[in-house]
Amino acid sequence: MEQLQQWLAAHFAARAFSLKPASADASFRRYYRVSAGGRTWIAMDAPPELEDCRPFLLVARLLRAAGVNAPEVIAENVDRGFLLLTDFGDTTYLAALDEANADRLIGDAMESLLRWQLASRAGVLPPYDETLLRRECGLFPEWYVGRHLGVTLTGDQQQSLAEAVSLLIARALAQPAVYVHRDYMPRNLMVTDPNPGVIDFQDAVYGPISYDLASLARDAFVSWEEERVVDWSARYWEKARRAGLPVNPDFGEFYRDFEWMGLQRHLKVLGIFARIRYRDGKSGYLEDTPRFVRYARAVVVRYRELTPLARLFDQLEGRLAAVGGAS
Questions:
Q1: What CA–CA distance (Å, rounded) separates 43 from 145?
Q2: Which pLDDT score is estimated for 70?
C-alpha cells in the first residue's frame, strides 16, 4: 500500500488525492478508487509475483481498438504491478439488471461482444486449446467433487466423466475461433455511456465463438427463464450472421454449441468456486454453486450423448444435499 501511494503521489505531483477500496476480486488483484480534484480513477494493484498485468494491457488495447468500452490505461508500472485506469463507476450489470431493462442491457452487451469478435485475429491471444480446456475441466473432480463434496469417484464414474469431457472439448474445438473475453458476465460489465464498460478481461484467449454468449446468458450470479435465453441466443445468432461472423448457419446446431460450451464452463466454475473457498479462503462464491448445478443438470438431461454425466450428477445428489448444495 505504501508503494502504491508513493507511485500515485509521483503521478499526481502536488495534487492531493484520496484512496479507498473499489471492488473485490477472485484473484490476487486489488482495486482502489483514487479521487483528486473532483475526478476519480481506478488503481490496480497486481502483485507481480502472483499476477502478470501485461495480458491486461494487451487485451485493453485490443478491446479499445475494436470499439469496445474498456478502461483506458492512464499510467502503468508493470514491474510493481500498478496500473491507473479510467473509472467506470459502481453500477455493474449484476446490480442493475431487472425484468424491465434486461433486454436493453443484454442487447448492448451483445453489440459490444460482436465488435470484439469481429476484430479477431489468430496468433494474437493464447489459444483456447485442448490442454487448457482439459485443465479447466479437471477442476471439477478435484475441487468440487473431491474437496467440497468429499467424494472419491469410482473407476466407472471417472470413465463416464472423462468420456463426457472429451465430447465437450471436441465440440468446443470444432467451433470457429474468435477473441474470447472468458468471463463476459454481468459482474464484469458496467452500466456506462457508451454501454457497457467491460472489465476483468486479462484472461482473454482465442477460442470457441459461443463461449462469451454462454457466460453472458447463463451467469454465475443471476438466472433467466429458458425462453429468454433462447431468444437472446437467437438474436445474437442473427446479428452475428449479418455481421459476417462464422457462426453455425443452423441455429439448432449453434444452440447445441452454446449449451455444450456452457456446460464445460459450468464444470470449470464449480471447481473454481470450491477452490476459491478452500484454497484462498474467500467466501461469497461457493454459495452460488447450486445455480451452476441446475444449469449443468438441465443440459445433460437434454442430450443423449451426455446421459452418463446425467447419471453421475444423480449419484452425487445425496452428497450435494449433505453439504447444503442441493437445489
A1: 37
A2: 98
